[in-house]
Amino acid sequence: MDRRAATRALAGAALSGAPLLDPLEGWLQPASGPPPRRRPGRLGVREAEELESTARAFRAWDHRYGGGLRGKAVLGQLSEVAAHLEEQQTPAVEQRLYRVMAQLAGTAATMAWDSGLQRRAQDYYVLALRASHAGGDRAFGANVLAGMARQMLYRDKPQDALELVRLAQDGARGVAGPRVRAMLHTREAWAFSAMGRASAFQRATAQAAEALDSARDADEPYWIAYFDEAELAGVTGGRLLDLARQSPQQHARAAATEIGQALSRRGPEAGRSHALDRLGLAECHFLLGDLTTAVEETHRAVEAARATRSSRVRAQLGALYPYTVGNSASRPVREARDMIRDLLAN
């Protein structure tokens, strides 16, 4: 599997262009219309807090393990929250339920596309966006659009991704904290790097670093806490790696430096992110022609990949495989190739 084939494996049958973007413009408008008549509900603040805790736990699952069987548990909880919203809850409880629905649907979306179910992921993203709109959570709505942008980037549609990021930035203006703004800038930078616009990529990355520098943990919700210096370094390194595939001598060493900083700041407990960092670093060294280090990093990457069932990790592992192929490959390189092939076969 080469890199293009690995990207196609994640592409699926999902919408793009105007059919995807035009319906999302409405998220910038205030919610309107009288609420429908519903039977009275009895859910209290305590039960709403318990549902919030569950949504937080599921989000942590996704960050660590990716999609898979855990997605069924998320959908079960999402169905329960939807049933509660069919009843007339108190305004405060109803708002919290919509926000829980948004978070659960966002997690379901990420798990779905991480498992290669692209159109289903889009459906969950749209549900998450509508729920965040109903719950008055514009910052999380921006986060949902950023997730959709990331999906477009993995599908090699950077212009669509950039449009989604711009929608997110417009909708969250005045309410997004520094971590959210930094994350949105990195999505913007990602789109620029995919377009080969190195200067625009550098500018957006600098804006992300500046925003993150002003972040304080107490300022923002839990769901953006993952976006720290390690995440910024990992994302920046990954995007430099995208540029390095076209100009290895210009960008590969800088990519390795950034990814190395991410690995020094977050370990195997980061799960999927750790595996992606390891795979990216191995590819950097192949591009630099340092086969000894590349093989060492490939061994580490394969071990990290075993700990997650993420389709994204598998696709990137498949994209690493061609670097190990060739009649002149040394024995250590052939051994690394066998490790990759064995893991992908399981």
Architecture blueprint of SSEs:
Layout (H helix, E strand, L loop, with lengths): L2 H9 L6 H4 L23 H21 L4 H16 L5 H24 L3 H17 L3 H17 L3 H14 L6 H17 L3 H16 L15 H16 L3 H18 L6 H17 L2 H16 L4 H10 L10 H15 L1
Helix pairs in contact: 1-15, 3-4, 3-5, 4-5, 5-6, 5-7, 6-7, 7-8, 7-9, 8-9, 9-10, 9-11, 10-11, 11-12, 11-13, 12-13, 13-14, 13-15, 14-16
Description:
The chain has 346 residues and is mostly helical. Helices cover 71% and strands 0% of the residues. Helix 5 runs antiparallel to helix 6. The longest helix has 24 residues.
**Secondary structure tally, helices:** 16
Based on CA atoms alone, the radius of gyration comes out at 21 Å
- Please give the number of β-strands: 0
Stretches with pLDDT under 50, minimum 5 residues = 1-11
Beta-sheet strand percentage?
under 5%
The rounded distance between the terminal residues' Cα atoms is: 15 Å
The helix/strand order is HHHHHHHHHHHHHHHH
Percent helix: over 70%
User: Which structural class do you get from the secondary structure elements?
Assistant: mainly alpha
Based on Cα principal axes, name the global outline. globular
Question: Main sheet?
Answer: none
Q: What value does the average pLDDT take?
A: 87
What's a concise summary of this model?
This protein is mainly alpha-helical.
Give a quick set of tags describing it.
16 helices, mainly alpha, globular, 346 residues, 71% helix
